[in-house]
Write a structure and sequence with these properties.
This protein is of the alpha/beta class and 248 residues long. The protein contains six helices and twelve strands. The chain has two domains: 4-97, Translation factors (Elongation Factor Tu (Ef-tu), domain 3, Beta Barrel); 113-243, 3-Layer(aba) Sandwich (Rossmann fold), CATH 3.40.50.80. The strands form two sheets. Strands 4-3-6-1-2-5 form a six-stranded antiparallel beta sheet. The protein has a six-stranded parallel beta sheet with strand order 10-9-8-7-11-12, sandwiched between helices. Strand 7, helix 3 and strand 8 form a beta-alpha-beta unit. The longest helix is centred in the middle third of the chain and has 12 residues, at 124-135.
């Protein structure tokens, strides 16, 4: 007789990779089919797998979009187990997906100002927030997105965010920052410099954000998140967090 635990084990679905795009040597985008009836909230994650190895990935897509869009950082073995396998896959290959999205790092509308702090792939839930917010025709909030990276080619969504900030200055202010501005890979960069956690306080003051009207989100590297909390919580701000560990 199978155990109750076996009977209740969620069934995995096989989904096809419909598109992929290399961003940098260790970063790529991947679009996979959304299983029939699959639902999620902006900011949640899906659990995908290959050869029995599974990891959770925040979903770039907004809930209304046809495909599930993922932004993947490749972490080599032995620390990385799944991402080196995913990197070798191409359009037409399949991965598994668990039947339910999970996660509580979702958009919280209580305060009109939303400060979105991220490192590299940590921008993913924020893109989902914004796409969904626009699709639903919501109003009354302003998003301030501060995104950090070592190199300019790590900003996979800078084109989308810059365009949105130009088209909807009432909705979005976008500030990308580079932590290694003198390296050859960043030649021609004339934007903000420094680690994103180190510029948060300056931009909070610049934008006249207060604990009463602003919610801070921090997503990405755990060290960045801890530093943002250390800087902003004593000032009275609430910081929602989502940590991206290696091969997550």
């Amino acid at each position: 007789m199978p155990s109750d635990r076996h009977l209740n084990k969620p069934k995995l679905a096989n989904v096809i990779i419909q598109k992929r795009q290399d961003i940098a040597k260790d970063l790529f985008l991947m679009w996979i089919d959304k299983p029939e009836g699959y639902t999620f909230k902006e900011g949640q994650y899906c659990t995908i797998g290959y050869n029995g190895i599974e990891r959770a990935y925040s979903i770039v897509s907004a809930p209304h979009e046809e495909l599930l869009e993922l932004f993947v950082e490749v972490v080599p073995p032995p620390e990385g187990m799944l991402t080196p396998l995913l990197e070798k896959l191409d359009v037409g290959d399949s991965v598994t997906i668990r039947p339910r999205a999970k996660g509580i790092f979702t958009f919280r509308p209580a305060k009109p100002n939303q400060l979105l702090v991220s490192t590299v792939t940590g921008v993913v839930p924020y893109v989902s927030y914004l796409r969904s917010y626009i699709h639903l025709g919501n109003e009354g909030h302003h998003f301030f997105a501060l995104q950090g990276g070592s190199y300019v080619d790590e900003f996979a969504y800078d084109g989308e965010l810059k365009s949105l900030a130009e088209e909807r200055p009432d909705l979005l202010t976008y500030v990308p920052t580079i932590s290694r501005p003198t390296e050859d890979r960043n030649q021609g960069w004339n934007g903000e410099t420094g680690r994103v956690n180190e510029i948060v306080e300056r931009y909070v003051d610049k934008f006249s954000l207060t604990p009463q009207d602003t919610l801070i989100y921090a997503c990405g590297h755990p060290g960045m998140i801890e530093d943002v909390k250390d800087r902003m919580v004593p000032k009275g701000f609430t910081v929602e967090e989502e940590r991206f560990w290696k091969d997550d």
